[in-house]
Design a protein that fits this description.
The chain is an alpha/beta fold. The chain has 7 helices and 10 strands.
């Protein structure tokens, strides 16, 4: 397997403990390169903890996480991995353009990256507006732009479509697939099961356990369910009956 063919993320036996609770009890998975991979499951199921472990900001109790060939959190990954948290991670008193200019400088992005990114996240008409005057959906797009401006190889997105209207959700997912077509790997978490159909591959997580790692079509064929939500319920019933 060549470097370019190697998975973007390899998680082996990951365990995470918070207080006295084992949030992730030892899961293993891979994220292929150049695909949109959905991490789906109910709130509180460990999705954010898994994403934080992949980014390298989560204390882990065991196992290994390898990202783009390096241990998660390695200094060499800082410019290669973009991370969009659930809460806006930009400066409210700065304009959209000033925010992206700042993050572009941190990432060592080439000249022109800021304007290209502003256009990509559809904020051209609001580029000179302070972020704290924008809507929640617009703020989410500024955060996305901050992660995109450095052209990361891997983009980690934690619930990026929460609170967005259906049209904007559709447009955001179309952008994700354009990025994947250009070679970016995206790992997108969501608790909205109908977003499963928008992914190339699915990771279904419940209470820290990986219930499925499959394509959307493969998941439906495996469970005989008509949609992702009922497939997820079927997997839960199978697990509880085991």
């Amino acid at each position: 397997m060549t470097h370019s063919q190697a998975p973007a993320v390899v998680v082996e036996g990951l365990r995470v403990i918070r207080g006295s609770r084992e949030v992730i009890p030892g899961i293993s998975l891979t994220v292929p390169r150049g695909e949109v991979v959905g991490l789906l499951g109910p709130s509180g199921g460990g999705k954010t903890t898994l994403l934080r472990s992949i980014v390298g900001v989560q204390v882990v109790a065991g196992g290994t996480v390898t990202v783009l060939g390096e241990p998660a959190g390695s200094p060499g990954l800082r410019s290669r991995v973009g991370y969009v948290t659930q809460s806006p991670s930009v400066y409210g008193d700065l304009t959209v353009r000033a925010n992206l200019t700042y993050f572009a400088a941190l990432a060592g992005a080439p000249r022109g990256a800021v304007e290209r990114t502003i256009e990509a996240v559809d904020l051209t008409t609001d580029a000179d507006s302070p972020v704290d005057r924008l809507s929640g959906g617009q703020c989410s797009r500024v955060s996305l732009g901050a992660a995109l401006v450095g052209s990361p190889e891997l983009l980690i997105l934690d619930e990026p479509t929460v609170g967005l209207d259906p049209v904007l959700r559709r447009d955001i997912w179309a952008m994700f697939h354009r990025l994947a077509d250009d070679g970016t790997t995206l790992l997108v978490s969501s608790h909205v099961m109908d977003e499963a159909t928008r992914c190339d591959r699915l990771l279904l997580l419940r209470e820290g356990h990986l219930l499925a790692d499959d394509t959307p079509d493969g998941l439906l064929a495996r469970t005989g369910a008509p949609d992702a939500e009922r497939a997820f319920l079927a997997l839960i019933e199978t697990e509880e009956a085991a």
